[in-house]
What does this fold into?
Amino acid sequence: MSNTMQFISEIVHEICPPGTPELDDPDKTFIDYGMDSLDISGILLACEERFDVKIPDEDMDELTTPGRLAAYLDRVRKA
Amino acid sequence: MNDPILHAIATYVPEGGENNGDKADRFNLAPDFIENKLGIGRVSRKAADEDTADLCEQAFLKLEASTGLDRADVDCIVVVTQNPDGEGLPHSSAVLHGRLGLPEACASFDISLGCSGYVYGLSIVSSFMHANGCACGLLFTADPYSKIIDPDDRDTVLLFGDGASVSLLKAGADRSGWRPTRFKYMTRGADRAALCVVNGHLSMKGRQVFNFSATAVPPLVNALLKEAGLGTEDIDQFLFHQGSKYIVDALRQRLKLPAEKVPLKLYEQGNTVSTSIPLMLEMAIANPDARRLLLSGFGVGLSAAVCLLERQS
It folds into this structure.
């Protein structure tokens, strides 16, 4: 698991409600993990703060899974 | 004249309202989202023939009954609102002044602020009273967002409720009550479009408002505490603007506060904008063990304000 993916897993554990499952499948959507729009906003903010990036609203549509979010963060940090 | 002291608060929440559970199917909402994320089971709604000053008047009548306040003694009234009576001219405080039959020597003006308005209002009224030798001032809040909410907009119709409050400040010999001791403010006007009125309806970019609240408020709280030489353990209760349960929970987590110090009061009426803090403050000051409170309002602007209130004996 990459460091970025590790962080996403940890932040989900920290800010999402108890009972939220482990992110064992990076291609499963956040919604299918039982999260809602507010949970996703919290995850994105934590990522912005941790990696010092800005995630524009228009990019949100592609960030539907933990794997896509991790790849996005790795990409914009290198840019 | 002494520094003004907050003596009493009265609030008014209209009887009418809409249950969010009734809208669950229409907006495809899970019950858990309503209960544990919004934390709002019902949003209060004023009657069709009620306007902003009417809500203030109802709060005033409760204050008058509980304190025995003599209307002839009131030196100034201030209404915090961005949804004033009618078409906004004249100002709601003038409407209220006439309705209550207050003395002609009583100053009356409105303050255009949203969710940070109560904290700003405390500072403004205190300063105005001090500068002008006023002995008795009334700070009203009433921002009936039902006037600007699009009933088909799930981002706002589930959140905002109507309500009003009035706070009695006195600068006389009676020093019992609560003294505002320290304030801090911040504004992020570059992001003002996150919460604004477009074509007559409220528009809210929820993620942007959440990001502002979660990142701006904790440092402001910590800066205020540092200036005052206090720690979070020195505060009996943190009264955060009740934007949603989710944002209050996020602030509590980020500031590492115990749940018992961070009250929630939005389930029955929703986010009542500048009235949300006084709704909690009314209960907090009734607790004889409470000595020091921290108030924090944040939202429209984007704007945030924090202050300390300390009980005077």
